[in-house]
Amino acid sequence: MTYRCSAACKHCLVMSSPGQDVAQVTLEDAVEYGRDFQSLGRQVIIAGGEALLFFNHVLAMCRALQEAGVPVAFIESNGSWCSSDQLTTERLRMLHQSGVQGMYFSIDGYHQEFVPAERVHRGARIAREIFGPEQVIASTISLEDARSLETLTADPERLRQFTRNLYLHWIGRAALELAGFRDPVPLEELTQQDCRAALDIDHLKEIQVDPFGFVRPDICPGVNLGNTRQQRVAELCRTQRVRETPLLQDLSEQGPAALLPLARRFGLTVRSHYVDKCHLCFDLRRQLVDYLPEEFGPKHVYEVTA
Predict the structure, then answer these.
(1) CB within 8 A of 163, min separation 6: which ones?
(2) How far is Cα 114 from Cα 253, in angstroms, rounded to an integer?
(3) Taking a C-beta distance cutoff of 8 angstroms, is the pair 278, 270 a contact?
(4) pLDDT band for position 304 (50/70/90)?
């Protein structure tokens, strides 16, 4: 829904931060996207950034979707807005009454660098009362343990161990701030790996549409299936779209090796080692986006653009 966020987590796939663009998905677009996802047999999830920084807009979006017969399965949040029991209860009740079926709250060492554990713990607790425990996705760790995460990123050794023990997608801010904690892999090994599973759109768990209309696979922000300004979500969110688009088909069959000829053409820097193929792909796309903005945009997923 937005790239703007109350946090700037070190592992964020889409570089969300307080300095990001305030652009938001419009109500009209939300209804169109919702109907298209529903036609594909998919559910609607509202995420960011921190979508609930713009509570009134999200509430209006949920009501518009409800009127269109498209329920919102979940809203993702870091809980930074949960400053009191009263406010949290009021807002979650309004969302529930507007057709929202559940909530997802992020609780981990990266988010708690920016969000007080007490707030997100409050959000998860009250959400379980309103939506039901089975409709809330959040860690069940104690408030005391959650508070201990607030200082994790300030300790380089704790951060290193935490990062090494956690599965991450090595794109976005993770590629820029955390990749040094993992063992590098030679370029030659990474260019032997394909991306067929990541671009088998028909079988992916999630597909994203951003505020600028870019449609992309769930773990590949910046690898665009197209833009809703030219085609509907229902037309773009299919594996057939990959097969019909030469660059996407090459990425599917060859993995990030498909980007190396483009890197050579534009004189870009290619390192000898990366953490994994996603890290390599992200680094090349981050340099290519200026030349191929429709294929790999927006620049927001590579840097803070205020």
Answers:
(1) 178, 181, 182
(2) 39
(3) no
(4) confident
Closest by CA position to 215, among listed 74, 37, 62, 6: 37
Q: Strand (E) positions, 140-288?
A: 185-186, 207-209, 214-217, 226-227, 273-274
pLDDT of residue 91: 98
Could you tell me which residues come within 8 angstroms of residue 216 by beta carbon, excluding any fewer than 6 positions away? 207, 208, 210, 222, 223, 224, 225
Q: What is the DSSP letter of 245?
A: S
Report how far residue 235's alpha carbon sits from residue 207's, in angstroms, rounded to the nearest whole number: 13
- 75-100 average pLDDT score: 98
When the pLDDT of each residue in the chain is averaged and rounded to a whole number, the result is 97
**Cα(95)–Cα(191) distance, integer angstroms:** 46
Report whether the peptide linkage leading into residue 49 is cis, meaning its omega lies within 30 degrees of zero: yes
Residue 45 three-state SS: strand
**Residue 306: pLDDT band by 50, 70, 90 thresholds?**
low
Which alpha helices (DSSP H) does 98-238 contain, by range? 117-131, 143-148, 156-164, 172-177, 187-190, 233-236
Tokens standing for 95? 């969302």
Q: How many Cβ atoms sit within 10 Å of the Cβ of residue 246?
A: 9
214-217 and 226-227 beta bridge pairing: antiparallel
Judged against a pLDDT cut of 80, whether residue 7 lies above it is answered with yes
Q: Which residues, 6+ apart, have CB-to-CB distance to 188 below 8 Å? A: none
Is the omega angle on the peptide bond into residue 221 within 30 degrees of 0, that is, cis? Answer: no
Name the β-bridge partners of 185.
Answer: 274
Q: How far is 101 from 127, CA to CA, in rounded Å?
A: 11
Instruction: Give the 3-state secondary structure of residue 104.
Output: strand
Question: 273 is written with which tokens?
Answer: 């080692």
Determine the pLDDT at residue 50.
98
Cα Rg for the chain, rounded, in angstroms? 20
